[in-house]
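queue> holo job accepted (F0G)
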Amino acid sequence: MELPFAEPYKIKMIETIRMSTREERQAWIEQAGFNLFNLKSDQVFIDLLTDSGTGAMSDRQWAEIMTGDESYAGSASYYKLKSAIKEIFGFDHFLPTHQGRAAENVLFSVLVKEGDVVPGNSHFDTTKGHIEFRKAHAIDCTIDEAFDTEIDHPFKGNVDLGKLEKVFKTYPKEKISFVIVTLTCNSSGGQPVSLENLKQVSAMAKKYGALLLYDSARFAENAYFIKKREAGQQNRSIREIVADMYALADGMTMSSKKDGIVNIGGFIALKDEELLQKASVFNIMFEGFITYGGMAGRDMAALAQGLNEVCEYDYLNARIGQVAYLGQLLTSYGIPVQKPYGGHAIFIDANRVLSHLPKEHFRAQTLAVELYIEGGVRGVEIGAIMADRDPDTRENRYPALELVRLAIPRRVYTNNHMEYVAAAMANVFNRRASITSGMEIEREAPILRHFTVQMKRSVPVALMAQ
Ligand code: F0G
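queue> job finished
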C-alpha cells in the first residue's frame, strides 16, 4: 500500500485549549459585536482566524532565540538573516520591518503617489489599504477563473495578461507605481501563480518599464504548487523553483508571520541599491534602524532558520496535505469550498451556503458567526465587510466571492482538530435553512473596517418579506 504523508516532526511541548458551551459562545459573540476579531482567544476552541504569526517554531528556531544578538546596529542576527535572504531569494539588499504591512508602508512611501495605479492579482487588504491611503488605485488583474469557486484551475492566482496589458495601455508609465504579484494569492483563496505566468508578467513589466514586486507571504507554498502542478517542475527542489521565481522580480515585501514561521516580523528585499537607500529613510522613521527595523535580534535569527525550514519539501507536503484533508472532509459533507484547495486555508463559499440571505446581510460574516456558535471554531470573513467601501463613492463594495476562510496555523493542530472543524461546519450546513437573519453594521472605521466593525443581527428575511 502507498504510505500516506505524516508530519516530519514530533511534538515536544503542548498548550491546553478549552471547550466552551453554546450558551457561553452565544453571549460572547454578541458582546463582541459579532466581530470574531473582538473575541478573547480563550473564548475560542480551534482558532483558524489566521495562519499569520500563529505557527509553532521548531526547536532549532528556539535555539536561535537564545543566541540572538541584540546589538542596536550591525547585529550578527541581522547578517544571518541577510545571508538567508540572499541564498533563498537572490536579493542583495534588504530592510527588516516589524511585519508585512510595515514593509508595504515603507516601500510604498517611496513608490506610490496620489493618482497612481498598481496592477496585480487580487491585492491583499493591507496592500490595497496602503495603496488607497496614498490616494492611488489597486487594479485587480487576476484571471476570471479565480472568481468561480467550482472551476478546477491549477493556478487560480495567475495574472490575466490581457487585463495587465490594458492597464499599461490605459495609463502613462509614470502613473504605474509597479506591478505586484501576491504569492500565493490570499484574496482569491490561497491560490498559486505559475512560474510560466510569472515569466510572462515579468516580460510585460520589462517591456513597459515597470518594476515587478512580489508580496511574498506564502512564497514556499506557491513553489510547492509549482513543483506539483506545473509541467517540467516535478524533479526540481523547492529552493530551485523559488530561485527561478525571484530571479524574475525587482523586489519583494514579506510578512514573515506566514512562510517565515515566526510569530512577528517582515522585510523588504530589493535588487536595486538606490531604491533601498530611499526606502531606508522611511524605515528609520517608521520602523527602526536599518539593521533591526522593528525586530528583536533573536527574532531575525529565528526567521533566518524558519526561511530555511519552510523550503523543505516534506514540511510543505504535510502542511499543504493537512489543509487538503480539511477540504476533502468538508467536500464529503457536501459543503461548497473553493477548488482546488488553497495552500494555507480552505475557503467556504458562503454565497452558495446562505444564498437565501440578501448579500447586503453579509453572508460570509453570518456563516463565520454561526460556525463559532456551533463549535467554538474561529474563521474569518473574506467578503463584503473586508472589501470596505469604495474610496470615491463610499458605497459598500460587494466582491464576486463571499468566503469564510479557515486558515490553518503551521505545525499547530492535528488532523483530529480538522475532523472536529469539519463536523462543526457540517452541522451549520445542515441547519442552513433555519438561518434567517444576517448581519447589519452598527459602527465601522473608514478603512480596514473588518478589524473593528461592530454589528448586530439584521431583521430576519421572512419578516422583511411581509
Ligand atoms: N500580504 C499578504 C498576502 C497577507 O496575507 C498579509 C497578511 C499581508 C500581506 C500583511 O502582512 O499581517 O504581517 O502585516 N495576512 C494575514 C492573514 C493578516 O490573516 O491573511 P502582516
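queue> The pocket of F0G is lined by residues 50, 52, 99-101, 124, 126-127, 182, 186, 215, 217, 255, 257, 266 (CB under 6 Å).
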